[in-house]
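can u do me a favor
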């Protein structure tokens, strides 16, 4: 009976995180191995990116997709979007495994089995081209340029994070001016590079690191950023703002103890390895943390806005509002964990939205089917 404990662990994890549905899929023809996790559809269909990654184990992939999908629920709710939260991961056989149209189409067919309850989009390891390949098999995908629509959401994610930084500066009593600030960016890929560009245009000095040397070199040559050598730890540099823009789990007891920044605000998801403990640890050290699902909501707002039929002006306004949402969450924290405050903020929006939906569908009680 070796398989039963694994199934029970998955169900226990789902219950722990509050997920509605988790589905595993293997396509024999292409070798695709993938997981889709829907955390909540309380406010609407769930939109979330597809991540391609060479996980060390299936447990790591499951942990990632559960945390990412939970974060998407809070991200949509905190942004005031009538959308739920979900995510999917593709387990690559090795780090160098190249994406193919056949694999993407197999993933599209998997997405289509959810009949619109899950809408896929771009994430780490997935490009607009990959989204378009997926869209050849399902209409429930955003982020492509030809078959689907929405394009690369990273410029909007970076802009939203930049807006969140403004709120952080104001909350600490500092002038909202980047000209005399030093910002450290971990990961200068899609969102990190664009965030660095915004910061450089605003006059900030920017330090960068990236495991992919050509990516880091580009930020140095094109933007005038300063690359840190392998002998230096970005998380121990004395800077004004630290911006994690790579993968999650980078802030834990060890890294938090060595931080020499005043603000943490980046585009990465799930920056806190242990959300409760690490959020409290940052607060105790007097380091202001802009909760990741608030700061990095710009990309979701862009794609969800298009999905929901918003105008370009309405979408731009919502991304601008990330500054105000951040300010509201920071004020609500009362000097404690801003991560906990953000979750409470999002849950309140979910409860209010769910109650509104229930009232709208309740009818008058006369059995006539009206919405009164």
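np, heres the sequence
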């Amino acid at each position: 009976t070796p398989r039963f404990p694994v199934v029970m662990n998955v169900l226990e994890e789902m219950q722990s995180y509050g997920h509605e549905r988790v589905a595993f899929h293997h396509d024999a023809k292409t070798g695709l191995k993938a997981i889709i996790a829907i955390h909540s559809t309380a406010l609407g269909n769930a939109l979330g990116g597809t991540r391609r990654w060479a996980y060390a184990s299936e447990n790591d992939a499951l942990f990632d997709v559960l945390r990412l999908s939970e974060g998407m629920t809070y991200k949509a709710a905190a942004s005031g979007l009538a959308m739920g939260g979900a995510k999917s991961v593709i387990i690559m056989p090795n780090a160098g495994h190249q994406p193919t149209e056949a694999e993407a189409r197999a993933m599209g067919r998997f997405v289509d089995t959810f009949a619109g309850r899950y809408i896929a989009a771009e994430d780490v390891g997935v490009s607009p081209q990959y989204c378009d390949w997926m869209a050849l098999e399902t209409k429930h995908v955003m982020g492509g340029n030809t078959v689907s629509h929405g394009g690369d959401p990273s410029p909007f994610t970076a802009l939203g994070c930049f807006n969140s930084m403004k709120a952080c500066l104001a909350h600490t009593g500092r002038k909202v001016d980047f000209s005399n600030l030093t910002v450290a960016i971990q990961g200068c890929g899609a969102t990190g590079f664009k965030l660095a560009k915004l910061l450089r245009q605003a006059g900030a000095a920017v330090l960068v690191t990236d495991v992919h040397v050509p990516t880091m070199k580009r930020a140095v040559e094109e933007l005038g950023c300063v690359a840190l050598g392998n002998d230096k730890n970005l998380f121990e540099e004395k800077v004004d703002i630290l911006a994690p823009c790579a993968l999650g789990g980078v802030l834990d007891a060890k890294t938090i103890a060595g931080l020499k920044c005043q603000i943490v605000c980046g585009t990465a998801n799930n920056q806190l390895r242990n959300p409760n403990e690490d959020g409290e640890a940052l607060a105790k050290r007097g380091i202001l943390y802009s909760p990741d699902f608030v700061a990095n909501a710009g990309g979701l707002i862009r794609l969800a806005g298009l999905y929901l039929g918003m105008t370009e002006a309405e979408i731009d306004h919502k991304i601008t509002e990330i500054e105000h949402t951040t300010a509201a969450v920071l004020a609500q924290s009362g000097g404690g964990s801003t991560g906990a405050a953000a979750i409470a903020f999002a849950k309140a929006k979910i409860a209010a939205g769910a109650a509104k939906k229930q009232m709208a569908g309740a009818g008058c009680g006369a059995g006539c089917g009206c919405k009164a």
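The CA atoms of residues 30 and 103 lie 6 Å apart. hope that helps!!
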